[in-house]
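Weekly structure sync, notes
Attendees: PL (lead), two postdocs, one rotation student
Agenda item 3: pending single-chain targets
PL asked that the sequence for the first pending target be pasted directly into the notes so everyone works from the same version. It is reproduced below exactly as submitted, 255 residues in total.
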Amino acid sequence: MDDSRVVTLRGDVVSAADGSFAGFRGTAETEAVPSLGVGSARSAAFDAALDEALRSPLDRIIESAERIVERADGPLRSDYASYGNDIAAAARHLLSVIRSMSEDPTHGQRTIDLAGLAGEAVVMLEASAEDRQVTIRFEPSEPLRASGEERAVIQILVNLLGNAVRHSPPGGTVQLDFARTPGTASVTVSDEGTGIDPADQQRIFERFERADSKSGGAGLGLAISRRLARSMGGDVSLESAPGAGARFTLTLPSP
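Predicted structure, written out during the meeting:
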């Protein structure tokens, strides 16, 4: 069977002389349709499953958390309201992860403030860094214009910062630095971890690959980050050596 064609049947019931059923009389028309292919069909099914299983519940979590922050249901202790804000931020981040798996980041690409979005990503990771006794050093700079999609850029920065915090020793520092060149804008996330062996520096950008199996994580963050960056005309690069920490740089085109 040709899966790329739709067959439309049209017909009428045919009766015999005595009024009994004698069959059908009609036509069959075929129409070519774009072939999705097995991969695209699976992707469409996956997106539908995500909608039903995750996106709607996350929207409800965000709505409920925002009601907590606004104290819409009555007086509430300030620390509980703060927890609500953390829940809403985490849910939005998870929602952006889900969207990044199925949406084309170039659809919403425009001029963004890379420094401002880095600040938002830092806020999302502050609690995790505090738990691990790691300091994120970020000095807000003047706006750094770049071309990109806001959700995708925040997703990349959260991934890079999360990795840096996870691989930093207690008391360590994660540093953010910004740079501008003709035609590009970039932010570098540096940590004081054990570094990455040169033999592993390309492998860790593959899906389900990790430099250290004991560090946790699913091995998807860097693969997603590089894919998103390249889809926006940029890239994620790495400089590291064993014992010298790691420096991940997100580079984007600059208008």
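Discussion points:
- The mean pLDDT is 76.
- The chain has five helices and nine strands.
Action: rotation student to compare against the earlier draft before next sync.
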